[in-house]
Fold:
Amino acid sequence: MNTPVSDTFRQQLQAMRADVIAQLRAQRGGKIGRAEAAANARETESDDWAQADAERDLAFALEERESAELVAIDGALQRVADGSYGLCVDCGTSIATARLHANPVALRCVACQDKAEHTRGAAKPAGY
Structure:
């Protein structure tokens, strides 16, 4: 991928990274740590334990998703730095620019992604 194009994606990825970090901080109540945020949430919870548990589970799920997204973004930024960004990790062909605009952290071309998803689907136990 040529330098101006990779610079565009690098900037997009850095903006995405900043957004994810801001979301994680907001979930934690600003710049406080996870333990402090949990203690604060416990103090303000209502007597409805089921609702409090559901809210806590949702917060943990969101944080896990955003943490995974952050790992994917950091991986993409590393690929930009080492020059492999935009190349399919499976077959080595160029990933379509339209795909990268839609999903800047894409690891595979459409054909290899489709194959990977079908392979994963076939490995699931019966009835899954």
Q: What stands out?
A: The chain is about 70% helix and 0% strand. Confidence is low (pLDDT under 50) at residues 124-128. The two ends are 40 Å apart (CA to CA).
